[in-house]
From TrEMBL:
Belongs to the Nudix hydrolase family. The keyword Membrane does not apply. CDD domains: NUDIX_ADPRase_Nudt5_UGPPase_Nudt14. This is ADP-ribose pyrophosphatase.
Amino acid sequence: MSYEVLESRKTYEGKIVTITVDKLRMPDGSEAYRETVIRKKNAAGVLAVDTDGRLLFVRQYRHPFREMLLEIPAGVIEEGESGEAAVLRELEEETGKRAGRAEFLCELYPSVGFCTEKIQLFFATELTAGTQKLDADEFVEIEKYTLEEAIAMIHKGEIKDGKTIAALFAWQARKNA
């Protein structure tokens, strides 16, 4: 099947996202419009595992949902930075922990209907004390749970973040392989 972008019109450009409206030629020759939110930078998240096997999470306010959500540490991959370097940086910035080892788990497209963002997921071990460096407008609470507790929290609707759910199930599958 063939899709052709006939025109692309930028309707908004911000610090994190650019919004475009694209006119497409569909496989049957008809034309259609698609609104697309394009994230300028991709992201990476990390499931950090301490020496007791407990997983580190951050609880932070997410304005679109007006809720404090429980998530794995994550953030944008800066220009020229690898996903692994990004998660090691984000882990320390958000939790004050450094990881001696990080391994790739998987990559996901969190919102394929309107967003080009890709998120690389890692797990990290060999945690040591580092320095927490939160942004001025970033307020987080650090929480720890076992894998079993976290999976139960998904089923109870207490963990709702997609990247966190994906990381937990990917980690569970890896451990059971």
